[in-house]
Design brief:
Elements (H helix, E strand, L loop, with lengths): L1 H10 L9 H4 L2 H13 L13 H8 L1 H14 L7 E7 L7 E6 L2 H19 L15 H12 L5 E6 L3 H4 L2 H9 L5 H11 L3 E2 L5 E2 L12 H17 L11 H9 L4 E7 L2 E7 L2 H15 L12 E4 L4 E3 L2 E7 L6 E7 L1 H14 L8 H19 L5 H23 L3 H8 L10 E2 L2 E2 L28
Parallel strand pairs: 1-4
Antiparallel strand pairs: 1-2, 3-7, 3-8, 4-5, 6-7, 9-10, 10-11, 12-13
Helix pairs in contact: 1-6, 3-5, 3-6, 9-10, 9-11
Length: 463
């Protein structure tokens, strides 16, 4: 079903799809939707009704739950409940919080079903310059594209951030973009119902949602990408086959005349515009982009939006990207390092778990530290970070040593007897059969630019 919808959308860019609602409440769609909800990390986090996936599976049964949900959808009696709002601190120790919306299990399943139907259609319209929350794409692809164009003369960067994007998207503008592809009024009404469901805040009670798509909802990233496609299309309009930057020859011709070329790389609401030209060209684009975002109810964050040269460097998706001279040569390249904020964040987590007064089980603590370090190093191993990982190993090891010494009331002499080999080298920390993970053992490699990334439904297997 998804492959056919995607193929039809690609074949006819102006097609508006009708009779999609039958796909939404199809039993097969709801089964796949429930499996995806149950497999998410927040499956056992309840919404305003207090129900979890485990409770549904044990008390109601999945077949009966999905049949009742399908009946309500077909009869038109299904109504989304308000999302439960929860504030979590933003990474980096800034003190700011991010507001997440936690829908009920039934709402999550319907949102997942909607996404299964709508995503293949809108993926046909999304441009290859956006990478956030899209199938088959990841943050490293965005970094690789910046690396590739930065190495080809795109030295000025508009490092931008949309202020409270998920909270401020205008519903009218968003629904207008959805209607360009969807004609089925029942599907449109269902999408709008989720947008208007309201938020149950932690302190102020029920609050109407006049704008935005609450972060945490399964459908929210797709809707945000649909809205922000306006930005991609505006910036990349000259890159169309008939545009002034549509071919390599035309881009070279523009540069010979002293005219700039540019390209956007976007990951959800974070994006950069790479400019082959002057600083004034990037600043001019900043004003144009602000005008494009205004009808969506969005604006650029004054604190986080700036124009920088690649030689100065900038942070994007946890990485620090900078144009530097290769040591020992006169050649300059674009390098990717680990930014300061994620390094401080992971160290903060380790400090919190190895606090000197903590009486937690060492085996449990080592297991949790290993999980954090493996996930963190897996993400950042594509940066120039061998020295950073070695320092991180040293930091973690000695945090654990000091915590164990305090926990077991050991003297340094006793600690050395436990963890130093006869040759004088420190043994890896191990407690209860769990050995502390060594971040410096991770293989550091470069993530290669993949160029055009096809949608998963475009493969020959779906023909």
């Amino acid at each position: 079903m998804q492959a056919k919808l995607h193929r039809w959308a690609v074949a006819d860019p102006g097609r508006r799809f009708d009779d999609l609602f039958n796909f939404v409440h199809d039993p097969a769609t709801l089964i796949v939707a429930f499996d995806r909800v149950a497999g998410n990390r927040g499956a056992n986090t309840p919404g305003v009704d207090g129900l979890t996936v485990a409770w549904v599976e044990e008390r109601v049964g999945v077949p009966g739950f999905l049949e009742d949900l399908r009946t309500a959808l077909k009869a038109g009696t299904f109504r989304p409940l308000p999302v439960r709002e929860r504030a979590i601190p933003k990474p980096g120790g800034s003190g700011k919080v991010r507001k997440l919306g936690i829908p009920t299990i039934a709402d999550r399943v319907v949102q997942a079903a909607l996404k299964l139907v709508l995503e293949p259609i809108f993926e046909a319209d999304f441009l290859p310059v956006s990478y956030g929350f899209r199938p088959g794409r990841r943050a490293h692809d965005a970094i690789a594209e910046i690396h590739m164009f930065g190495s080809r003369g795109y030295q000025w960067v508009l490092d931008a951030d949309i202020e409270a994007c998920f909270d401020r998207i205008d519903h009218t503008a968003l629904m207008g973009r959805v209607r360009l592809r969807v004609k089925d009024k029942r599907v449109l009404a269902l999408v709008k119902a989720f947008l208007k469901a309201g938020v149950l805040t932690e302190h102020a009670g029920l609050k109407e949602s006049d704008t935005g798509t609450p972060q945490g909802g399964i459908l929210s990233p797709l809707l945000a990408n649909i809205a922000l496609t306006v930005l991609d299309e505006y910036v990349m309009a000259p890159w169309r086959p008939d545009g002034t930057m549509g071919t390599t020859y035309r881009r070279h011709a523009r540069r010979k005349k002293g005219l700039p070329t540019w390209r956007i790389v976007r990951y959800a609401d974070d994006f950069v515009v790479l400019v082959h030209g002057q600083k004034s060209d990037a600043e001019s684009l900043r004003e144009d982009i602000a005008g494009v975002l205004a009808p969506l109810g969005l604006r650029l964050s004054p604190a986080k939006t700036r124009v920088v040269h690649m030689g100065e460097g900038f942070d994007f998706l946890g990485f620090h990207i900078q144009w530097r001279r290769k040591r020992g040569t006169n050649q300059w390249y674009v390098y990717t390092f680990i930014a300061d904020r994620p390094l401080k964040a992971v160290k903060g987590k380790i400090r919190a778990m190895t606090h000197r007064v903590s009486q937690a089980d060492p085996r449990t603590i080592l297991t949790r530290i290993n999980q954090i370090l493996r996930g963190w190093t897996s993400y950042f191993r594509y940066a120039v970070c061998k020295h950073t990982l070695s320092n991180l190993r040293h930091f973690v090891q000695w945090r654990v040593f000091r915590w164990l010494r305090k926990l077991h009331r050991l003297r340094w002499k006793q600690l050395r007897r436990l963890f130093v080999t006869p040759s004088g080298r420190w043994r890896p920390v191990a407690m209860g059969g769990i050995e502390l993970f060594d971040p410096s053992s991770v293989t550091v490699t470069r993530y290669r630019y993949r160029g055009t990334i096809p949608a998963p439904w475009a493969s020959a297997n779906h023909a």
